[in-house]
């Protein structure tokens, strides 16, 4: 494995090393694993392997515990932080997919409302009857970019 492939979730540290890096006793790490507080990956032989993120979590657990928080509250905080992290990754993935789609289809897409109210996609350069409402839809780069520009309308600009 090259250093470029190493990320914060790569399980590389044995329990003794993780305990030293986090400033805890190995038995404490075993207890946290049993409680589901910080659960490391396992090797085929069953040995625990901690990642850099696990070590960060262990340090955070130690800090919160020293501040007087109970283990159930700490477990809930870690659970919520994991969920937020997952959601950030999902948003980043979706933004990448939108960016790729926007690169594949430069320019806006034109839709027309049919007589029954159905939405019909038109090819670029296609003319429509005057009685048909035409809406130009241009996807936003990202939510942050649109917020910076003061755009609140998710449909984008419209023309009749």
Characterization of the model:
Helix 1 crosses helix 2 (26-35) and helix 1 crosses helix 3 (52-66). 46% of the residues lie in helices and 11% in strands. The chain is mainly α. The longest helix has 34 residues, at 71-104. It is elongated and about 75 Å long. The protein has five helices and five strands. Mean pLDDT is 80; it is low at 151-160. Strands 4-3-5 form a three-stranded antiparallel beta sheet, with no helix packed on it. It has a two-stranded antiparallel ribbon with strand order 1-2. The protein has helices at residues 15-22, 26-35, 52-66, 71-104, 143-149, and strands at 41-42, 48-49, 109-113, 119-122, 134-137. A hairpin with a 5-residue loop joins strand 3 and strand 4 (119-122). It folds into two domains: 3-100, Multidrug-efflux Transporter Regulator, Chain: A, Domain 2 (Orthogonal Bundle), CATH 1.10.1660; 105-149, no CATH class.
- What's the count of strands? 5
What's the tally of helices?
Answer: 5
Average pLDDT score: 80
Oligomer: single chain
CATH architectural grouping of the largest domain? Orthogonal Bundle
The class by helix and strand makeup works out as: mainly alpha
CATH class of the largest domain: Mainly Alpha
Biggest sheet statistics = 3 strands, antiparallel
Rg to the nearest angstrom?
26 Å
CATH fold-type name of the largest domain: Multidrug-efflux Transporter Regulator, Chain: A, Domain 2
> Looking at the structure, what is the overall shape?
elongated
Query: Which spans have pLDDT < 50 for at least 5 consecutive residues?
Result: 151-160
